[in-house]
Amino acid sequence: MKKVLTAKQVEDLIQSGKSASSFNDDVILTPSAKDYLKSLDGPLHSRPIEPEVPVLPDYEYVWTPGGDPKTTGEILDFFYSPEIHVLKERICDLGRRMWERDYTDGNGGNFTIRVGDNLVLCTPTLISKGFMKPEDMCLVDLDGKQLAGKRPRTSECMTHLAIMKRQPKCKAVCHAHPTHATAFAVAGVRPPLCMIPEADVFLGEIGMAPYDTPGTPDVARIVGETGVDHMSVLMLNHGVITWGSHVEDAYWRMENTEALCHTVWVAAQLNKGKMLTMSNKQERDLIEIRKTLGMDDFRDGFDDCELCNNNEFPAK
Prior knowledge:
Layout: E1 3-5, H1 7-15, E2 27-29, H2 31-39, H3 72-79, H4 82-100, E3 110-114, E4 120-122, E5 138-140, E6 146-148, H5 157-166, E7 172-176, H6 179-187, H7 197-202, E8 207-209, H8 217-227, E9 232-235, E10 239-244, H9 247-267, H10 280-292
Parallel strand pairs: 1-2, 8-9
Antiparallel strand pairs: 3-4, 3-7, 4-5, 5-6, 7-10, 9-10
Helix pairs in contact: 1-2, 5-8, 6-9
């Protein structure tokens, strides 16, 4: 006679190490026991399928060239689609992270993600980046015209768009006012190279964009031109703007920039301000690493003696 197993008995066997797939025709399962086993087939309990070779996740949004929605209805369907909702949630998460690190004050800071040939998701104006919701997001074209969203878009999106128009690799932009990096921007001091490898790999040389009134065409042009060759730009007397292949990539560069400026500021108070630097050969190695990661570096053709231009930071 076959043994009858209840849900409780099956649960005890599973907890003792028996596999859910090992229950065969030799036993009779009660309906509740069958239901329990079915519940183990869900995504929370099943073993994930792993690739043969570990791979990095790629969060870059990829669209079909020439496939932008055209009509108002198509645009709204796209704007409220599940795939765009994921990006909205990601922006909100990064906004909270940025706010918690004191990178923004009041309604400062903003994000954009390019989602089409002529479509960009962006944050709204006059909102704390720490308390945004997906329904607050906006959709604009590359000229800044708002296409969707219940709140008006940020006026500073024009600066983001100016970089996107000039640099095809720019798929997302982050702008903020982190204290130490903004202090460098106010002092007009370019953060040094050849001191911290992480900064040199993920930022390269930081650009310096002269001040102009925020939200104006002139500041958009100035920052857009500077951003072509620099993935992090200090906007003098204003703040920092960074870009990357996806929105978290852009945000990481904001963290990289602030960490570099903070570290250099602290180090400048030690050892009479003299700092250790890497050699030109070591800096050349970091440029090669940048290239393997798909990042261009305009210094690639420079002579070794030109790679580390740190006149404001005396070496030891």
